[in-house]
Amino acid sequence: MSRPRIALTTGEPAGIGPELCAALAGRRFDARLVLIGDAGLIAERARVCGIDLALRPYDASRPDTEGADELEVLHVPLAAPAVAGRVDPANARYVLALLDRARDGCMRGEFAAMVTAPLHKGVINDAGIAFTGHTEYLADTTGTPQVVMMLAGRTGADARTTADGPWLRVALATTHLPLSAVPAAINRESLARTLRILDHDLRAHFGIARPHIVVAGLNPHAGEGGHMGREELDVIAPVLDALRADGLDLEGPLPADTLFVPRHLDGADAVLAMFHDQGLPVLKYATFGHGINITLGLPLIRTSVDHGTALDLAGTGRADTGSLIEAVDAAISMARARRTH
Questions:
Q1: What is the mean pLDDT of residues 87-104?
Q2: How far apart are CA 332 and CA 297, in angstroms?
Q3: What is the dihedral of CA 49, 163, 208, 206, to 10 degrees?
Q4: Are 191 and 229 in contact (CB under 8 A)?
Q5: What is the DSSP string of 261-314?
Q6: Is 36 within 8 Å of 21 (Cβ atoms)?
Q7: Is 125 labeled as ligand-binding?
Q8: What is the pTM of this model?
Q9: Is residue 294 within 8 Å of 332, Cβ to Cβ?
Q10: Which one of 13, 63, 96, 223 is CB 3.0 to 4.6 Å from 82, fit for a cystine?
């Protein structure tokens, strides 16, 4: 049986992405992993970090059923020399070129999924390129009108070492917005689309026959019957009622401060938070730094680490590969589920 071919972008060249990707050489995956980045940079960072690495040049015509478990590299040259820990706007377009190559390969069926190592948004903007993040860039460049950001991770006391705890999945109704802009961004149409995307992709990519989704309110105490805000009464509850009538399994809107407890999470397949810092602090605390980011609604599968470039750790060999390993495992699992959906 052919193994799924997974594209892995190596991210910001001054950050920890290249060495995290190189460190995957010590693990076995039931997939072909193709690193996209500068081959010399990856080899140099592996050497500095003491990683035993032998890269095989990527050959698109090679059958996915053959070959030993080894990393392949699709070489994309740096625009300028990269120094660990020191970002350079000259390499901003190089970073975007990695994304473009992985995206295009997924769109034409060359890759079953793409996994992204962290990039540095600030240096891309410093290069004069308006850039909000991976999620928005992939949505714009694939012509996708709405996507959903979902972070996920295994929870439980042993999640860091055994990675066999239950999954917590937290999706967002809004993403990278100032808090003052959040209420106006939550309307009936966008919220209904978000929930339909979440329900669809949990079925298609995770094999969940009828997802149970728990929905947070926006205001403290979910508005307390309109005394602390009317968004729950005017927007959220009517949308949930309409979608329940269409067969979606939805619970809420619930107060966010009491939502993340076993009574609601046991049996839940995902939580929908109304804004970034309502749900993600809980997720990141509960998953011990092994969480991942998944973009739902795209015409391709994309997973990512849930951390940044960690410039202070670049080139030291001390960066934790846990989130990247989980992101690769999730991409493989989602690719297989998509084959059978």
A1: 98
A2: 18
A3: 10
A4: no
A5: SHHHHTT-SEEEESSHHHHHHHHHHHTTT--EEEEESSSS-EEEESS---TTTT
A6: no
A7: no
A8: 0.91
A9: no
A10: 13
- 284 annotated to a ligand binding site: yes
Cα 67 from chain centroid (whole Å): 29
* Tens-place pLDDT, residues 246-285: 999 999 999 999 999 999 999 999 999 999 999 999 998 9
**Closest by Cα among 61, 93, 56, 90 to 75:** 56
Residue 188 has pLDDT above 70, yes or no: yes
Phi-psi region at 11: left, alpha or beta (left = phi > 0; alpha = psi -120 to 50): left
Mean pLDDT computed over 130-141: 93
Cα–Cα dist 65/210, whole Å? 33
Peptide bond into 253 cis (omega under 30): yes
Query: Any idea which fold 146-297 has?
Result: Isopropylmalate Dehydrogenase (3.40.718)
Per-residue pLDDT at 162 = 47
What Å distances lie between residue 337 and 135, 191, 330, CA to CA? 22, 26, 10
Give percent of the chain with pLDDT exceeding 90. Answer: 86
Distance CA 211, CA 250 (A): 8
pLDDT of residue 76: 98
142 is in an annotated binding site: no
Domain with CATH 3.40.718.10 in the chain: 1-144+299-341, 146-297
Q: In which element (H, E) is residue 322 found? A: helix 322-340
**At residue 87, does pLDDT exceed 60?**
yes
To the question of whether residue 121 is assigned a binding role by annotation, the answer is no
* pLDDT value at 37 more than 90: yes
32 is in an annotated binding site: no
Q: Is 93 annotated as a binding residue?
A: no
CATH homologous superfamily of domain 1-144+299-341? Isopropylmalate Dehydrogenase (3.40.718.10)
